[in-house]
Write the structure tokens for this entry.
Amino acid sequence: MSTVVDTTTTPVDIEHIDLISRTEALIPLLQQNAADTEEGRRVHQDNIDALEEAGLFRVSVPRRHGGFEADFGTWLAIEEALGRGDGSTAWAFSLLNIGNWFVGLYGEQAQDEIYGTAGGARTCGVFTPSGTSARVDGGWRVTGKWGFASGSWHANWAMVGFPIVDGDGNPDIGFGMVPVSDYSIEETWFVAGMSGSGSNTVVLEDVFVPDHRVLALGGSAVHGLPTPFTDEYLYQAPFLAPGCLILAGPQLGLARAALDLVIEKAGRRGISYSSYDKQTYAPTVQLAVAEAAAQVEAARALVYTLCAEVTTTVAAGRQLDVADRTRIRVANAYAIKTAREAIRTLVSAHGASSFANANPLQRIWRDSETASRHAFALFETAAEVHGKVLLGVDELPTTLL
């Protein structure tokens, strides 16, 4: 497949096409470092340096803080391109990127503090309301552990969820921003796939989190987001929508990488115990490649359409209701599942050698199988929630909508 951006099938803001081209230029470097990233269980430093030099850690940062304030379709295109090079790098970047976007939902004081970090902000985060908190003058004292903080090795801020109560004594969930000097990282990410994403555990021990760095989930739903910059429409989106969509980018990239690899190898490989000296001529391989290509294109079309819908909706000053949010979540999860199926189809077509350690296809397969089980990416969970909404069931199993 060509590495040239096709704007007819990748609907993104034309202003940011150069960002995508810069990202695609990094694919060979990421491929070269993929094995080392996996073995070292963190994104190779050369990759991080290249992302920084290309300005990619500023993709979701507001323009007034030196960022690109890029639309969600541009995020997806960048994450997809990174996934074609290396799944772990794409995943870590995707989570750090949305962490930086999440900062834009806070009040001006928090934004100035975090976006003003020397060298630029890189924000990892875990939404799960873990740990304990105690109300003190001016903020909260927080203790706890938050697992699966992707990109943790390269972050300088962490967003953690913890229980709080509002001024009326009602329970709520607070999302607190904590600088790297206030937390430690417990190395817990020992996994079969996405090994290099650095999705370790963030640990806080009686850390003070001031009020201006705490965003109340329920309070924001009732009273609006703390950010005073309401003309910056990208930061008015309900966080679940982009929070789900970013998980598709790496998966789409992995699927395209698998398709490229199998097509490239087919002309140089035969099929054991058959008369085919080249897989290219075998109808089973032809059908498998065609099916996988169709699955990849279908998944891409669906997710880019969802990104465009979220972007245009918030740009028009409208909000997505609960039914829209759950629909977007399940449709995105279906696209991720479809991309995963494409990779499975390609692995079978390629044969047993897919699983040789030296074959990048086995790492692509493992990364896909692991990433597609993220709670926001899992189709079965998303389908349950949306099914309840469609059927008029009032009690939903989650408040993260």
